[in-house]
Write a structure and sequence with these properties.
Strand content of chain A: 15-25%
Number of domains of chain B: 1
Helix content of chain A: 25-40%
Number of helices of chain B: 14
CATH architecture of the domain at 270-347 in chain A: Alpha-Beta Complex
Number of strands of chain A: 13
Oligomer: heterodimer
Radius of gyration of chain A: 23 Å
CATH class of the domain at 270-347 in chain A: Alpha Beta
Number of helices of chain A: 16
Largest sheet of chain A: 6 strands, mixed
Structural class of chain B: mainly alpha
Distance between the termini of chain A: 55 Å
Chain lengths: 351, 299
């Protein structure tokens, strides 16, 4: 069963929202509704997330991504459509049942941390457990474990005002982890942080994820971030423009909109050896240096420079899959979709 | 031509409107209420009189010299030794005037009416913050309560409770309550939306969000409201001297009648020093709220 599933999900703000949904279904474009003072934030979303997956929703501001994530835990009611969490439809729950679902199944990390300024780090982390009704000793003990997990040991008794942005967000993350829910919603969680700290937090999230295997919905407006951490990425502008892995988006953009987005991405960090390799042919490859198929292109530079022959890409069983040459690497870095090599070269001739 | 038009306007447009008896309606209502709810007013009268008399007796139970030290100690505890010394000197000066007893009576009236005003104001402020409808109704009523000239309250209140301390306290409660409601509402509405959302996202009930998130974060603003309530109460309690409210108000209205500059100045000085005491101590308390302390740490 999917951890989260949404089906023809719509959210429209403004007067006559329901009418607007039927208009959208009939194919009236979003801009035309905007002119009438109705804002369509989420249009016809249909997707599901498997347990343990990091699902990134990526979009510019105003693309409805914050609205979307708030619908997943019922903070915002959909205008129409279904949301299922572990097979339970949110719309069928009473407010009390909905609160219980949030306590037990879903926690959230916020863009601006949303910490209580008068509580210490460990008291903030214990907040979710306090709501769950754990007694003080137990919740503080579990909060301390979560604080340690995010690497904030020694700061337990500080107040949020005494912490840097990155540390504050670690508190936010620890609070969500301490609640011990299967699903973690992260709303632009790293967007307010400096670039270096942001990368550090991304690494930490991936490391934690490898241990904890939560189902994570991650909202961001930064495509590099999306590609770095997302198992699958949904590019949204009201509706879902494309949903797929980072490689799908780079190699097979669904439309202009997605292609424009992906143009600026550092492709070498997203594409893997498998995605850029060429067929082996029939020659003798026994002398070639081998690389695993899931190694990123930016890690191939060094081996290919120190080897005269192409690199041999192998799978988990060490069976050959293809070869990577300098040429195939350079080709992979250009954002042009798969066209014949000759044509591409011609296009690039100065006019 | 212009004169003709003016005459016409006065004769046919304005003149036919009769004077509306707003005042008569109010008077009829008050007279009716006095008879209809006599038992209720008696109970309120007895209750407030009891509170006031006991508090005033308590404050006057010890000699003024020891009370001065106690006030200084309270100020020290609320804010620090500097304020303790300042308040000690101020209250010593008050004890030096002939009006220590009246000052303690006035203080009792302020404390009783401010306590009741804030007990009414906080729930009202919460209701106004949670509901737009309550807020929309409360706002003009509060404007009315706050701007109606203070003296005007005294007339119906005296009619309901006769002269004495209680009408003064009632008028003071009505007059001093509005900033308590307003600042409670403001403080709650100013709480960061994301933090409230965090409470919701972790499954907290609305009551819990109010108690654990909104009220603690709004507390510094609510305390500022308490400060305002107390200061307004002090100003009203002095005016209540006109209806036999006792305390410094009676001294001041008496000296106004006799043009007694000396007595008026003594009592006025005591009012000022009492005002400083109440203001600084409540400010000190609001600086001690957890959120205000955390904010200070950030600097």
């Amino acid at each position: 069963m999917s951890a989260i599933a949404v089906e023809s999900l719509y959210k429209v703000f403004g007067k006559g929202a329901r009418g607007a949904v039927s208009q959208l279904k009939a194919g009236v474009p979003r801009d035309q509704l905007n002119a009438k003072g109705v804002t369509a934030a989420v249009i016809d979303h249909n997707w599901s997330i498997e347990p343990g997956e990091i699902f990134v929703v990526m979009g510019l501001s105003g693309s409805g991504k914050s609205t979307l994530i708030r619908m997943l835990n019922g903070l915002i009611k959909p205008t129409s459509g279904r949301i299922e969490i572990d097979g339970v439809e949110l719309g069928s729950l009473s407010p009390r049942e909905l609160r219980r679902l949030r306590r037990e199944k879903i926690s959230m990390v916020f863009q601006h941390f949303a910490l209580l300024p008068h509580r210490t780090v460990v008291e903030n982390v214990a907040f979710g457990l306090e709501i769950k009704g754990l007694n003080k000793t137990e919740r503080l003990e579990r909060a301390r474990e979560a604080v340690e997990l995010v690497g904030l040991s020694g700061h337990e008794d500080k107040l949020p005002a005494q912490l840097s942005g990155g540390m504050k967000q670690r508190v936010g993350l620890a609070r969500a982890l301490a609640a011990d829910t299967e699903i973690l919603l992260m709303d632009e969680a790293f967007s307010a942080l400096d670039p270096l700290i942001r990368q550090e937090m991304q690494d930490q999230l991936l490391e934690l994820q490898s241990k904890l295997a939560k189902t994570i919905v991650f909202i961001t407006h930064d495509l590099n971030e999306a590609m770095r951490i997302g198992d699958r990425i949904a590019i949204c502008d009201g509706e879902v423009k494309q949903l797929g892995t980072a490689e799908d988006l780079l190699l097979r953009p669904a439309d202009e909109y997605v292609a424009e987005f992906t143009a600026d991405v550092d492709r070498s960090r997203v594409l893997t050896a498998e995605a850029v390799m060429e067929p082996c042919g029939t020659g003798d490859t026994s002398e070639f240096t081998t690389v695993e198929s899931d190694v990123h292109v930016n890690e191939l530079y060094e081996p290919i420079l120190s080897s005269k022959a192409p690199l041999l890409v192998v799978d988990d069983n060490a069976d050959p899959l293809g070869v990577v040459t300098t040429r195939s690497i350079i080709k992979s870095l250009s954002p042009e979709p798969d066209t014949g090599a000759g044509e591409a070269e011609q296009e690039r001739q100065p006019a | 031509m212009i004169d003709y038009l003016r005459d016409w306007l006065w004769t046919y447009v304005w003149k036919p409107l009769p004077d509306m008896p707003f005042g008569d309606w109010m008077e009829t209502f008050i007279r009716w209420a006095r008879d209809a709810w006599a038992a209720g007013f008696d109970a309120v009268d007895t209750g407030l009189e009891f509170l006031y008399a006991n508090l005033a007796d308590g404050l006057l139970w010890l000699p003024s010299g020891i009370m001065v030290l106690l006030f200084a100690a309270a100020a020290w505890a609320a804010r620090g030794w500097k304020l303790g010394v300042g308040i000690g000197i101020g209250m010593f000066v008050v004890a030096w005037t002939p009006y220590w007893e009246q000052t303690m009576q006035t203080l009792s009236m302020v404390l009783v009416s401010a306590a009741i005003a804030i007990l009414l104001a906080i729930p009202l402020g919460i209701a106004a913050a949670e509901s737009r409808a309550v807020s929309a109704v409360a706002r003009p009523v509060l404007d009315f309560m706050q701007t109606l000239p203070a003296f005007v309250y005294l007339i119906p209140v005296v009619m309901l409770f006769s002269v004495g301390v209680v009408p003064g306290i009632i008028a003071t409660i009505i007059f001093a309550m509005p900033p308590g409601v307003r600042l409670t509402e403001l403080g709650l509405r100013q709480v960061d939306r994301e933090v409230v959302e965090a409470g919701q996202a972790f499954g907290a009930s609305p009551a819990r969000i109010l108690a654990r998130i909104k009220l603690p974060l709004a507390l510094p603003t609510i305390m500022a409201g308490l400060n305002q309530v107390i200061m307004l109460a002090l100003s009203m309690v002095v005016i209540a001297g006109l209806v036999g409210g006792g305390g410094l108000g009676s001294v001041i209205s008496g000296s106004l009648g006799r043009l007694d500059i000396a007595a008026g100045f003594n009592a006025g000085l005591a009012v000022v020093l009492l005002a400083i005491l109440l203001d600084r101590v409540t400010q000190g308390l609001s600086d001690r709220t957890p959120v205000a302390r955390a904010a200070k740490l950030a600097r």
